[in-house]
Amino acid sequence: MAEVRMRYALLADGTVTRAIVALKGPEHPYICQDCATRVKLRRGPVNAPHFSHYEITNCTGEGVVHHAAKLELALALRERERPFVLHVPCSWPSCPETVALPFDPIAGPHTEVATEYTMAVGDAVYRLDVATLLHGPHVDRLPPRSCSNGLWRT
């Protein structure tokens, strides 16, 4: 299997660290978030900083990639260094185009970004990978009868 390159790994105490800020050396052990085996930090003049497994493994890193994507999305939303744009696929069948929508006018201003956020809408409970919150937990401005399971009623 090809070598999995990961931007994140676990420290000995279980906290997540990014390869770009991780400390190099044998006194700093790192663990794969997906398969829980040891990984090494690779940082040099050619490749971007990343972690890789010491030995060939069947680890796909998919869990790591998904988790890393959530963290990167949350970081981008939190820092707002450049405009955030959603690329929404066209709803017309077989149309390959996307529509670019600026994120801020859709979501409005937010004061907090949360990962693994749990939200209840009526009797349904949703677990969001990344949520933008205005002054803490979301409070629906619509009466409960106006929406069903978070979707508009027609």
Secondary structure topology:
Layout (H helix, E strand, L loop, with lengths): L7 E3 L5 E3 L11 E2 L6 E5 L7 E4 L8 H18 L5 E5 L8 E5 H5 L4 E10 L2 E10 L13 E2 L2 E2 L2
Antiparallel strand pairs: 1-2, 3-4, 4-5, 6-7, 8-9, 10-11
Structure description:
The chain is of the alpha+beta class and 154 residues long. The chain has two domains: 8-77, no CATH class; 103-152, no CATH class. Helix content is 15%, strand content 33%. It has two helices and eleven strands, in the order βββββαββαββββ. The protein has helices spanning 62-79, 103-107, and strands at 8-10, 16-18, 30-31, 38-42, 50-53, 85-89, 98-102, 112-121, 124-133, 147-148, 151-152. The strands form five sheets. The protein has a three-stranded antiparallel sheet with strand order 3-4-5, with no helix packed on it. A two-stranded antiparallel ribbon has the order 1-2. Strands 6-7 form a two-stranded antiparallel ribbon. It is globular, with a radius of gyration of 20 Å.
SSE-based structural type? alpha+beta
Low-pLDDT parts are 141-154
Total domain units: 2
Q: How would you state the average pLDDT, rounded?
A: 78
The count of helical stretches stands at 2
- Tell me roughly what share of residues is in helical segments: 10-25%
Spatial gap, N to C terminus: 49 Å
Short description:
The chain is an alpha+beta fold and 154 residues long. The protein has two helices and eleven strands; from the N terminus they run βββββαββαββββ. The chain has two domains: 70 residues, no CATH class; 50 residues, no CATH class.
